[in-house]
Amino acid sequence: MNGVVTLGEFIIETQSDFPDAKGDLTKVLSAIRLAAKIVNREVTKAGLVDIIGTEGNTNVQGEEQQKLDVYANEQFISAIKGQKAVCGIGSEEMESFMSLENETGDGKYIFLMDPLDGSSNIDVNVSVGTIFSIYRKKSAGSVCEDDFLQPGIKQVAAGYVIYGSSTMLVYTTGHGVNGFTLDPSIGVFCLSHPNMRIPDEGIYYSINEGNYINFPEGVKKFIKHCQEPDEKTNRPYQSRYIGSLVSDFHRNLIKGGIYMYPPTSKYNHGKLRLMYECNPLAFIAEQAGGLASDGYRRIMSILPEEIHQRSPLFIGSRKMVEKAENFLNRYQ
């Protein structure tokens, strides 16, 4: 591929990675591309229209829905329906999964998403994003909950869109990680970050230290480790925490670092959603040479028991995640 490579061209060029595919995955990725551009349009003019603020409802997790949460959810569902390659959709904003079998016929993929991660930051002009994950339908009959309750190792593709100073779509199909930046002048995603790799050792640690008193002892010890001066290991590390998971992960993916959302006294099982946030980002991290753990085990090995299951998350540079696990095991 020479010169500027668009996302559409890249998807077609890499179809050979799936010799048994019939183009359905390409359709799903194309739908994501379309929905991302539509959501980006609304995010970039959020302060000019009645799209910021709360919707007045709460989602299944009991969190207050933002207007853009609802909008993004609707746009991605609409785009996915249009390609007729997906038989079921699960969303952080919906109580249960949505069957599309009556509309898509023999669609063979399952689509999971956090339509607008970090949406509470829209009102203060902080970057937000969309996280998505794609699985193959595994049941022989009608789509059912078991089709969604698959471990992360079964993912066919995963990615995220970050709506920031520039808009990027980053994804993997299990053959490395590639990033595409939206050129607003022509409305096309162009390959800008080919074969993304996360450094083995980073310089950033990302965690909400306001919850420090409620962290497990191992996490507290690891934070102190990050803060201690040590020239051999380039410590102290720099603390960076935005509060938008996609933004924090994206920075660490490029520059190296670790993002942590451990269990707390309020969220004993962690706060982040395993299916909508942890698994897709774990797939990307591993494909880029990093690691993702719940502190004790590989995120993508966890067998989910419910579609909205929560999990702790330690993700980023390989050596930093391994070190965090060591501290957690030492101070159980």
* Uncertain parts: none
Q: How would the global form be characterised?
A: globular
What share of residues is helical? Answer: 25-40%
CATH superfamily of the largest domain: Fructose-1,6-Bisphosphatase, subunit A, domain 1
The level-1 CATH class of the largest domain: Alpha Beta
Mean pLDDT: 90
Radius of gyration: 19 Å
- How are the strands of the largest sheet arranged? 4-3-5-6-7-8-9-10
The description of the largest β-sheet is: 8 strands, mixed
Please name the CATH architecture of the largest domain: 2-Layer Sandwich
Task: Explain what the structure shows.
With 332 residues, the protein is of the alpha+beta class. It has two domains: 7-193, 2-Layer Sandwich (Fructose-1,6-Bisphosphatase, Chain A, domain 1); 204-330, 3-Layer(aba) Sandwich (D-Maltodextrin-Binding Protein, domain 2), CATH 3.40.190. The protein contains nine helices and 17 strands. It has helices at residues 7-13, 24-44, 67-83, 101-104, 145-148, 217-227, 245-255, 274-287, 318-330, and strands at residues 54-58, 64-66, 86-91, 98-99, 109-117, 128-136, 155-163, 167-172, 177-183, 188-193, 204-206, 238-239, 257-261, 272-273, 291-293, 310-311, 313-316. The longest helix has 21 residues, at 24-44. The mean pLDDT is 90.
